[in-house]
């Protein structure tokens, strides 16, 4: 009976947050059951994944029981009420230390208040489980530096779960939370989503407040959600969006939630990416995705980006991050002996040496990228491209130096961008499709991603669980798109 209960709980945790919400609403499960099952799964499995940095189980169970009490009285706060949430460890949660990937808790104090977005989700009734591992800087994804903190991919434990926010991807894919919330400066949410076979959106700039998150770049920083499906993101995103008077550039989402008809769409398909090092099996799966859109009547227009200097623009984005970190945190952090990881010390040191002229040049380079993207969107309703040039990499191999080459494009411009699974590599690793829309088209973007997910018919449950050994094993094969 105990084993059967574990199997049923595993099935519950690996289903979509939308289904979990429906089961809560009709009384099939309680939030306390969902939360307890999640905490037990974390205890059993996260030793293999290393997605969480800290948990608050007592607080989570209290919040779950409070949610069940509200529901029994007909006082449910939102469709999210009672679902579980994990927060990347560079976003403040009241009473918890925000380490930002740093292994120096003695120098840090617990946050006095929630980040704006965490406050909104708590007010919607979500149960906050704890904090997820992050890297202390984005330089690994840009420069190909080794990851000091390893988060392991549920599809293959020998492979990375992602970059800066790998903990988000691993936890959601393994069913260790209903939703994760993290930051995205150059692609830090969409890359783990692609690697782990889940979905993430970087919202339109200004629609989700970044107040209460560790700042890397005023221009590039975004906060967004990661979940199993686009429908899950459609459920949570409106509760994250709000005007925050303390967030410079905060603005409402102006466009309505109008329906998306694929047959009426013009879609710009990025081509020429093999010159950047796009691996052949991603190219093949990407072509199959384009054929699927075309089959249902979408007009596909090829956009040749083979001459796009992605490495230069990616480096320019890192220059802006390093310059701002050097100014913002250099004086505060470098004076604390032995408190900072070596990589972050180097990043701050580099940032303090960057000249104003270098920042201006970097900013202008990014403006060139923005102009090119905007010209493509003038001719098309949405743009399509792979989320990354490669699948998740093996920790025994060098870290790819151009991981953010495709995702950073939307950070430079502030356009909304979603990563949705499009297939599998020959080694059983997920591959992601990135869709970029016009400013304010976030909800339509998610509807298009939801359409693609349905038509592609992929089962992205990462791995099957062997309950005798509690080990993971790969299930699906390369190019499965039907």
Automatic annotation (TrEMBL):
SUPFAM superfamilies the record matches: Amidase signature (AS) enzymes (SSF75304)
GO terms, molecular function: catalytic activity
Pfam families recorded: Amidase
Domain Amidase positions: 34-446
Domain of life of the organism encoding this protein: Bacteria
PANTHER family: GLUTAMYL-TRNA(GLN) AMIDOTRANSFERASE SUBUNIT A, MITOCHONDRIAL (PTHR11895:SF7), TRANSAMIDASE (PTHR11895)
Protein name per the record: Amidase
